[in-house]
Amino acid sequence: MCGIVAYTGKREAYPLILKGLKRLEYRGYDSAGIALVNQGIQVYKKMGKVAVLEDSLLGISLSSQTGIGHTRWATHGEPSDRNAHPHRSSNGKLAMVHNGIIENYALLKQELSNKGYQFDSDTDTEVLLKFIEDIHIHHAGSLEEAVRIALRRVVGAYVIIIVDEDDPETLIAARKGSPLVIGIGKGEHFLASDASPIIEYTKEVVYINDYEVAIVKPDELILKNLGNERITPFITQLDMELAAIEKGGFDHFMLKEIFEQPVSVYDCLRGRLDAQLGTIRMGGVDPHLDKLTNANRIIIIACGTSWHAGLVAEYVLEELCRIPVEVEYASEFRYRNPVIREGDVIIAISQSGETADTLVAIDMAKKQKAFIFGVVNVVGSSISRQSDAGAYTHAGPEIGVASTKAFTAQLVVLMMIALKVGYAKKSIDKVRFLHLINELNEVPEKINFILQSAENIQALAEKYKDARDFLYLGRGYNFPIALEGALKLKEISYIHAEGYPAAEMKHGPIALVDESLPVVFVATKDAYHEKIMSNAQEIKARKGKVLAVISEGDVEFISIADDVMVVPVADELIAPLLSVVPLQLLAYYIGLAKGLDVDKPRNLAKSVTVE
Ligand code: M6R
Fold this sequence. Notes:
With 611 residues, the protein is of the alpha/beta class.
């Protein structure tokens, strides 16, 4: 949560930082602000999206070659101008942006208040800055030393970047728990929460690690640990193109990303699955396959949509590999005392690779000697670096806050892993292995087919957009898809939606059913298809509206349903990869029909780097 951009060099900082903030707005959009250094520090900040800040600055001269910017997802203090970043020190000489949470801020605030400090905001950020300021004035010679001393006392997560009017070209940055990338140019440096604001200027980047402090000048990047020892920056090349982070003719990133799925699934399979040879090769998995084949148990940890991918994986891994699987919310796992035994393997799933709860859960499991296997989309992210081994999903940058193409790519990776392990363990035979390889190989084409019905789904969205509640029901491999469909609708349209196992409906949720309730059945053909048809009849008998995702040619379900969304026939294991796509489109079009900002739904952020 929160996006940070900073620059020092020869260019005009304001337009560069503003553009960067727009790219990072998916991380939070409660307020935006910029501090520019030019004969003192000027701070401009506004509640609302980056465009509000931009409008407020029209006509103002903003020349500066060094600056910091922030787009906020509020934690401490409501969204408002006064709580917006950057914050200033008491003497006005420093300004700081922060992403994260300072957990012991109340204690620090009390200490500072006792010394006479006043506070202009309700944020933990202002407390940290004034704590640094106090150390700088009274104890430390340099600002970087003050930062190091202060951070040794801080509990929590942070990326901070500070500008100092007494050292106008220098940025001091530090990280623990939240992400920070530094782009290296010729006589200039770019700092950001992810690479998207940097990519158009340079492909050479340094990912800053926890407990590192960066002293950044136009011509120099010095990295140190909190003990003041120098660290050699490790420069990596970005493997990302600018086009990948732009809308490419679509109205929204969410729609673009839904429509990218034939390509993103193909990219995920490419170079790994060879349908002709009947092989799956995965560079990050193959050397560690024995860890998985010999696992006594697999524990999957994830949050949100990634957790839903984990649920599908549970069904698939248990079916194909006969290994017990548990799927845990990372946020719960980390706060209980889970039993982790030798021979357990943890699979951590995350699009961003920065989700705080998942990161801490990994850390906890590592301390108990578990082997961590990461399934991550963002290359170089914290989770990818924390994992012992892993596989990237290669879905490309996902900017829409609602996860779509990352989810299908996660499913593909997890299914390939399950196939490899199942075949290696001989819990599936060659015929089934080859059949499922072929089925996976056909997924891009089948998603293409589904996307051709986008207009029909838009018409359904118009028809159902005013419903107050939705129920999503599915069985077996499609049960997690019912959860995912409901989550997508909630996020994008703010309509209350619940996902449930179809058969469980009669144990409670059926009480909700009346003529105003649309019930979305995820009902592609599987071994127990007649069971879900009976559930649909039960809804019809109570005058509920039945809207169903069905397999092509399922005339029986058509005769029950009020409306259908058709997907190509597929093996039941593969079906979730298809049945989720119409539900993504339905959520998108309902959000659109309600006039909502589908790429930036209220209260959400793409990358949840706070607990
Ligand atoms: O980056 P991650 O996959 O770790 O993120 C997990 C969730 O925050 C994320 O899936 C969230 O639920 C999305 N908004 C879903 O669309």
